[in-house]
Batch of 3 targets.
Target 1
Amino acid sequence: MSVPAGPTAETGNVSTLELFFDLVFVFTVTQVTQVIDLHPDPAGIAQAILILAILFWMYGGFAWLTNAMGTDGTLQRLIVLTGMAALFVCSQAIPQAFGEAGIVLGIGFLLLTLVHLAGFLWLQGPREDVSIRLVAPVNLTGALMVLAAGWVTGAGDWILFGGAALLFASSHLRPSGHRLAVRPGNFAERHGLMIIIVLGESIISVALAAQSQELDLPLITGGLLGVAAIAAMWWAYFVGDDDLAAKHFAAASGAQQSWMARIGYDISHLLMIIGIIGVAAGIRLDLGHLSSPAPVVSAWLVGGGVAVYLGATGLFRWALQVGPAWVRLIAAAGCLGTVPVGVGLGTAQQLGAVAAITVVAIAAGHRRRRTMAGTPGRPRGVVP
């Protein structure tokens, strides 16, 4: 079979079918947040992270797949739609993945993996053939581990889910000279759109949870401060950094571009999503009492969520050569320091604090960029 005609290398626009697939993944994010709602303790948070990491691995796999094959042909569309259906089944099982729905998640994930493999086998180009021979054993082994987790309970669940997550992570971090070439415009835009969609979903999930509460001034004020914190998180990614990162990504080639894709986009964006989920879950857990001293777990979710998000944007900036990570890492530490504010005063006050810290970090980074751009002999827009 000949290699199907894919999109041109310069095509950057994300297709509507890719966006459709992303919206199903947003349901995955909603369900992961539900895990923390049901189990607001360290074990529940760890379960949520493991499930998200495993499913994000295959979401990323489909992002690479559609980037390589496009979505214009009928067979291509059927592959994506079938994968979407499998992801939907997985997502339905998430709240009870460590319990009675584990088998459903395992079957759905195995199907998702097989559809992804079928898509790459259909491509059958020399680069795709080498890449899928490297990735397929990892994907299938991880899928079988997730399936096996559905038949056990207790420590077995943790060992198998944790093992699958570690397997996927180690594969992604391992250097390889046989990675697929990507259309950089599409790849960067796809990941950016996922972040904006997840940020929007976090606001919606909090708003829907608030419908059961009495609409009073503390709830309105706390809600607005939550929007302010999420808006600051949006600003930390979308006002300049995303465009400059996309330019540097497009200018890179070979192993450097592959490394940027895996670390700067895949890994850092998974961490960003984990942070967003943490903030949304922390707010949801304390709805109705946003201006009163918050439970410790809620305060840690809010402070830790923004901290993880800012740390991930620092990784993104560093990997894509947008700027140094240290400003964002200092801000992340500052957000962790707001936990006593939440416990002592309330979630609303803590949200105001993390929003302020984030804005200061953004302003410091932009000021540094303007200063360095004006340095003689340094290209404009490039910050070391």
Note: Residues 189-373 form one domain.
Target 2
Amino acid sequence: MVIAIDGPAGAGKTTVSKLVAKELGFIHVDTGAMYRAVTYKLLNSNIPLDDIEKVNSELDKMEIEIKICNNEVVIYIDKKDVSSEMRSECVSVNVNTVAAIPQVREKLRKIQRSIGEKYNCVMEGRDITTVVFPDTKFKFYLDAPVEERALRRYKELLQKGEKISFEDVKKAIIQRDQLDKTREINPLKIDKDVIVINTYGLTQQEVAQKIISYVKSML
């Protein structure tokens, strides 16, 4: 069974997804981490991201392996755990470019669907409800005003010790929204039968409980 959680940057998808997965005993799958892993490998291999032919050639050779540890997905690229490396600032700057490449999305989509076929999971990402698992009956879209999402992301970054202004975070969120909604391949959108949850004014625990209550009511 797959619970799909979609939505824009800063809407709280990751924390909420983890809470839901923990409560239900499901596996948590952060699909954004997969794009980060591929981005890290391409950069580490000195592949120019604007050279699609070289990107595709490297992608064809790339061995992506998924392991489950404590109900979380651990990503191995060519037999190496890249969990730490893929969180670098360099990867953060370039992951949007890689995520827009059709061949990358197709390769990772197959892996994501394979996980969903094998495990009960809560899978989060920006096209999970519309492209990867459009037929699951548990589809949620988390949303909130830009100011709220930027504030949430700003606090997260401060807790990590990063020095950044709120205005810079807000600007980055707005830019990410624009990129996600206008990209040619699988743009961010709200599917017709998805349950939209406005997270404004709600704690992440409250949002998670809304999802859990709905899922349990449908079982």
Note: The radius of gyration is 17 Å.
Target 3
Amino acid sequence: MVGALRGKLLKKEGTKAYIDVNGIVFEVNCDLFSLDEFEEGRDVFVHTVIVVNQDEMSLFGFSNKERKFLFQKLIKVSKLGPKTALKILSNSDVSEIASLIVSGDVERLSRIPGVGRKTAERIVAELKDQVKEIASRKIMGIMEAIEALTALGYPESVARKCIRKVAKPGMEVSEIIKNALREMTKL
């Protein structure tokens, strides 16, 4: 199967990336975080998963192995398809999603568009033990920093994007917030 693609990103359209690999153009469904990391006209390396359903065969792509790993786990949850899995991955950082699953935070998981309470409960029940390693690698203080910035009146999506750019493992929450605020002034 196709485990990864390396080629030139021709264009991004919605949640799809069109990648030219030696003259063959692949249509790849991506989460928004991965798409944001890919630049049109540049060479990209995309970790991929092929999903075959009764009616179609689709290619899903990710900017890193952790996103691909979590996608593969999510699509194995009963009654959860690849499109819902992409919505989940488009909503937050992988480590944050894994932390919500491990901590059993059904309430916050169910706030993700396309994920109801029952689906969130199934995700927690079926994946809690399988995503502990990802959750343990979580950047310290990221959720606190998001809450602090939203309390200051910044939209959550903007706060997440800026924090993702500046946060490094081991950073203090105050340092993450300070650097994220600097990043916001550039927007």
Note: The CA atoms of residues 29 and 107 lie 27 Å apart.
